[in-house]
Amino acid sequence: MHIIWNDTSDTRAYDEVCWANVFNLRRPKHRRPRGVTKPRCDEDILAAVERAIQLGLRIAVRSGGHSFEAWSIQDNAIMVNLCEYKQVKVDTARRTATATSSVTSIELNEILAQDNLFFPGGHCPDVGLGGFLLQGGMGWNCGNWGWACELVQGIDVITAEGKPVYCDITQNSDLFWAARGAGPAFPGIVTRFHLRVMPCPQSIYSSCYIFPHALYATAFRWAITLVDDLDTDTELTAKAYHQDLGPCFSIIITTFKHNFQDAMQALQPAHESRPAGTLSEWFCSPESMSSLYAALASINPEGHRYSTDNGFFHDDPNIDLVSNFEEAFLTLPHESSYAFWAPMRPWSRRNIAEMALSLQGDHYFAVYTIWEDEKDDQRCQEWLRRTMKRALKTSIGSYIGDSEFSHRDARYWRDQNTERLMEIRRKWDPQSRIAGGYPSTLALPNGRASVIEEPSRLDDEHM
Predict the structure, then answer these.
(1) Among residues 244, 255, 246, 242, which one has the least CA distance to residue 208?
(2) Domains of the chain (ranges plus CATH)?
(3) Which spans of this chain does the record mark as coiled coil (predicted)?
(4) Is the full-model pTM beyond 0.90?
């Protein structure tokens, strides 16, 4: 295990490891880890934790590097970049797989596809499993199939005290509970996930209806009416973005089926009921996981600056989400930005497993503000804060995976789950050694606060 310290004369080597695979070009240059390392096995990670304990430093972890605020970049910490620690094992007969935390969604599914298996990982192909699953995992067809973390059967963890443990529903069950939704508040380092996987969809088809901004309300209200009649293998999304036709509002319906006839049956009702006036459309067009990943990669380009916010919402006849979201959908501050809505029913109406993930809203809305030039930072971020303050006024809380703690306080778990998570943190990481980047105080809706301990003052000297 080799650590590159921030006072090294080889600043280029330090920067390469420090910023390797950080997706967001808007980076927290005011924070600077004490040291950085790229482990290739559990023993390397254990050595890094032991070194941090010796020096009185914290530990920060990076798996895929997709967190918008680069949570892995923390002061007074050894940053453990897992990007070179990739292992996947598949048990075809049992339909299970184990994967290390830095394995990405596309990497896992390319391996699973060899055995006609599939895992509903992140829509963006290069999202690492570590952050994705710890945050809950809003993956493919989430509103129907559920959150990806619900398919986690066990985890291998290195604790804040440098002890390797296995966790599932019967062993170290409190850590297992936290691992499914705690996100950066998880008090340990997950090295490996044990997953239940699915049969690979044999036929993937999509329909898309692209409307001009003038038909936003008509198109969105139509999309909302489709939700209750969609079958369980069909995903619906509304998205505002720019394309060659100019600013537009599109409804995308993707179905994961075993044959063309089933796909046609799933997509036909929406096609027959669509409003007139589309700028462009397609119906029941063949797709593949490769084409879906390519489409998502194209709207989430590397080498750009990102800022985001989001919220969950209940169905309420007194709340007009179409009007509430209109400004955010139709006034995006840059041509690379986009906003999207996804229904969370029927999942939002189910009894869910005991886990940290606990907010159940019928609707999810998020804005990905994307731009290229640093000079646009203030304009784009001010637009996001101002616009989302209005859009989120009836939100019940936010998804931690699309959140930036520097923007605002938000609710990420139910009250009782927040309190239990803090108890688990106090038990497994009493010194707050694991540096996740979350706020020190998480506000609860009743006005109380659940406090995560601030780290103790740390020694600045190397041993």
Answers:
(1) 255
(2) 3-84 (3.30.43.10), 88-199 (3.30.465.10), 203-402 (3.40.462.20)
(3) none
(4) yes
